[in-house]
Automatic annotation (TrEMBL):
Pfam (any one): PDH_C
Species in which this protein is naturally found: Planococcus halocryophilus
GO molecular-function term, one example from the UniProt record: prephenate dehydrogenase (NADP+) activity
Superkingdom to which the source organism belongs: Bacteria
Domain Prephenate/arogenate dehydrogenase: from-to ranges: 3-287
Pathways per UniProt: Amino-acid biosynthesis; L-tyrosine biosynthesis; (4-hydroxyphenyl)pyruvate from prephenate (NAD(+) route): step 1/1
Protein name: Prephenate dehydrogenase
Known EC number: 1.3.1.12
Record-annotated ACT domain positions: 292-362
Amino-acid biosynthesis as UniProt keyword: yes
Alphabetized PANTHER family for the sequence: PREPHENATE DEHYDROGENASE, PREPHENATE DEHYDROGENASE [NADP(+)]
Amino acid sequence: MTKHILIIGLGLIGGSLAKALQRNKDIHVAGYDASALTARKAFKMGIIHSSPPSLEQAAAEADVIVFATPVGATIKLMEQSKYWNLKDDVILTDTGSTKLQIMEASKKLNHLFIGGHPMAGSHKSGVEAAKEVLFENAFYILTPDEKTDEKSLQFLKDLLSVTKAKIKVLAAEEHDHMTAVVSHFPHLIAASLVHQLDQEDKFPFTRQLAAGGFRDTTRIASANPEMWRDITTQNNAMIVHQLDNWMQQMEQLKEMLQTNDPEPIQQFFNHAKVVRDELPIAGHGAMFSVFDLYIDIPDVPGIISELTGYLAEEQISIVNIRILETREDVFGILVISFQTNEDRARAQKCISTRTVYDTYIS
Ligand SMILES: NC(=O)C1=CN([C@@H]2O[C@H](COP(=O)(O)OP(=O)(O)OC[C@H]3O[C@@H](n4cnc5c(N)ncnc54)[C@H](O)[C@@H]3O)[C@@H](O)[C@H]2O)C=CC1
Ligand SMILES: O=C(O)C(=O)Cc1ccc(O)cc1
């Protein structure tokens, strides 16, 4: 029997989930967005099967309702949902980047709520950025609570299995602690680095030099500010704790730099390199999946369109493209990112057979 899924919020995450769920032919995906234009666009793009005009009516017909809105809006919608005329056995879930406050809000609901967080995404937002394959190989965290029955949890896991994400059950507190470390606090640091660049007024040319490493380290600072405002205010205590640790670390770093002894400075970088190099690679346990292919290219006009042209001919989709370094006299490094490991392997074969340029995977 066809199951009715309602996705509220048709941006990057809601749109991507809607697309992935459509792989299951026994599912009807209805989509609602506060922006009527977004909902219309999602329907025209085929991301959702239907775009109901009334949220309450769509909610009444749903077997599963997914809140894919910024986490502040999600809590407000959850409160409103108490007044909706829902099916008794409906499952409510969400995609938010925080879980503690959302699970706290769920205690006041009359229906089952299982927290969710697909840990893949990007600095882009909006329905236009939605991708069916966004969650493949990424972790998809679920945070059931003591009211969750095994059958409903299994139903939700089965429903989400079409995303090809790795579903993992965690307590909300564990989730918020870990995401503060690997996602929320790093986001604040990325934004702070950009602020620091912005305050640099001695040499305005500095911005032009902000290539390679600076751009890599700060990419996420281009993400949706409203979404990150909500994440930061909800997971505030865990983030402040990370900031305390960081400030302590910076004090030690400052002392080390003032002493300026080369040995501990090298050890500092060495330890970071060892830990960083040992992180699980994307697709094998990493939190966010992007598959980078490095290509040594000469700095000549037309080279990028030549390479992307070969990939297009072989129908290999690219998710990102950037140049790490270009100087007039040396080869530059082109980094092309792919959504899946298979795409990257096909791209490497394509470039190696059709050009003389060296390719490698970091
Ligand atoms: N962007 C990312 O990389 C990731 C985001 N998330 C989480 O997923 C959720 C959605 O994020 P994105 O899709 O990136 O955001 P987005 O900005 O791309 O989309 C959010 C959508 O929700 C709609 N919306 C806002 N308030 C609404 C309301 N009250 N009722 C109905 N629609 C409303 C907006 O019009 C927009 O279309 C957030 O909670 C975020 O924390 C989770 C994983 C990754
Ligand atoms: O772009 C990136 O690397 C991200 O970190 C995207 C992201 C943003 C928020 C999340 O809760 C999960 C993933």
